[in-house]
Amino acid sequence: MTADDRGPEGAEHVEIVEVGPRDGLQNEAAVLSVEDRIELVDRAVAAGVRRIEAVSFVNPKRVPQMAGAEEVMAGVERVPGVSFIGLALNRRGLDRALEAGVSEVNVAVPATDGFCTRNQGCTVDEMLDSLVEMDRALEGTGVPLSVTVSTAFGCPFDGEVEPERVVEVVRRIADTGAVEVALADTIGVGVPAQVRDLLRRSAEVAGGRTLRCHFHNTRNTGYANALAAVEEGVRVLDSSLGGFGGCPFAPAATGNIATEDLLYLLHRSGLHTGVSLSGAAALGDWMGERLGKQPPAYLGRAGGFPA
User: Fold this and answer.
1) Helix (H) or strand (E) segment spanning residue 115
2) Among candidates 295, 302, 293, which has minimal Cα distance to 265?
3) What's the CA gap between 222 and 211, in Å, rounded?
4) What is the reported pLDDT for 1?
5) Of 116, 155, 213, 247, which one is the catalytic site residue?
6) Domain boundaries, the chain
7) 32 and 25 in contact (C-beta within 8 Å)?
8) Residue 247 appears among annotated catalytic residues
9) Handedness of CA 29, 35, 38, 39 (dihedral sign)
10) Alpha-carbon distance 228 to 92, whole Å?
11) What is the pTM of this model?
């Protein structure tokens, strides 16, 4: 392993939030066992990931790929300095997450009613009210809250999303104790100019909170969007090993940007991530074997450079 395998030593750091165990698996036909999901999390941590969305506390009847979240959290190796994130969409999910001992909670708040009603069974305003309730429940627990604004760049049901709509959602999130706000291109329709504009607008109302980005590569713009976000000062990016994933409630959804491909882009751009490029590529291939399909990622096929 070379020094550059995790990015140039001493270079500016970009934090990778690995979402493969949650967003990477929830839209796949194959359902991995609890044991495989535990191994996936543990191996991602061994590759250098320090924040990982390990589980989702949603109704297993709606998303069977996420069943057994408590068992996964009970089985993963708790490594000092590693944050295990649990996704919760309502108070019941939050209670389960806290009981399971997650390190932090992420709540998704769509920017559009069309997506929110289909994905979460409520309007955006109702979801924001629920967020306030969950925020209050987290008081005194020491568990930080992050919020993802899904469909921030476009909605499969409502079409174009006006930037002002996203800004209003971010503004209301800033009224809570959330420490981080993620802008998510849930269906992969965004382009770099849109990324820059939305980040600048959101920064004005986020109250100094960390801004994170979550991109999908549905229309082959995900990596360009990630680089645009970095150029705008974003230092936290979501990605999924192998490039797997997508939302089961979004028609024609395809995978997230691949962790290994993103690492190559960032490392060759002179940035440090602390995540092993070779380790991530091997783990993307491992996921492909278990899911019975070739990973969408390219790095595992092409290899790094120089070899």
Assistant:
1) helix 113-120
2) 302
3) 17
4) 41
5) 247
6) 12-300
7) yes
8) yes
9) negative
10) 37
11) 0.96
